[in-house]
Amino acid sequence: MNSKIIIHGGFFSESGTNNEVKIAKQEALTEIIKKSSSYLKTHSALQTVIYAVSLLEDCPLFNAGLGSQIQSDGKIRLSASLMDGKSQKFSGVINIEDVKNAIQVAEKLMSEEDRVLSGSGALEYARQNGFEYFNPETPQRRKEYEEKLNASIGLGTVGCVALDKDGNIAAGTSTGGKGFEIPGRVSDSATVAGNFANSSAGISCTGVGEDIVSAGLSVKIVTRVTDGMSLEDASRKSFEELKPYDGFAGIIGISSTGEIYHCDSHPYMVWAAYDKEMSVFS
After folding, report:
1. Which among 117, 150, 241, 245 has most CB atoms closer than 10 A?
2. Domain of residue 135, residue span
3. From the candidates 17, 42, 48, 157, which is the catalytic residue?
4. 157 catalytically annotated
5. Full-prediction pTM beyond 0.85?
6. For the chain, how many structural domains are there in total?
7. φ, ψ dihedrals at 95, nearest 5°
8. For residues 272 and 30, is the Cβ–Cβ distance under 8 A?
């Protein structure tokens, strides 16, 4: 089976109409998908998802890891999750502070009995496992916070879904939150609504977390694929169910048959995919 990978960097609306930022994001996605598709050739889907999401977290253009949005109390809290379609294990951290790569803490939790941790417990676990202090704040995010000019509409997330040569699927999602939210707010990114995979398909979401959780979006799409629908049909049907409350969401996904699909309820999700050749769009 040919290995395949797709990544997303949230919605472009985070950057308004700034064409320079749009171009920079597209260039960053191009570089990350090149590195990640090459990595996938010699690594598993799970390993590749961790690698790709870490690269996205390390890029200050995206709202995850470095460059995350600042919450209403002036602090940055990260959430991320990881799901291995082969083992059916899900792990994640919710509202963790002062770490560089939340997705890597989620990776560490994969081997634990308690696989989803939040807040101070997540931070204590990270420190005990060698994750050193890191401040993900950038001057731009601080400027937005201090001036109370939130250029984002709260849709920043990064994610990856990969299918390896052995047919295994994995999905990972990471976010810095929506910006200026109430401390303690839980996004979709560290739940099965926003990140889910099994042996049939994998999905990573971006958009308004509350809308995605209300829809149970990722797990709903994957369940429909498992029950026999194509990835496209499962996604389209699930997005129709967002319309009654004008749900704001975007997804990337891969099925076990090699079908790659992305869609959004509102335009301008930025994404990139590699399936024999590369595609980058927004």
Report:
1. 117
2. 4-281
3. 157
4. yes
5. yes
6. 1
7. 55, 50
8. yes
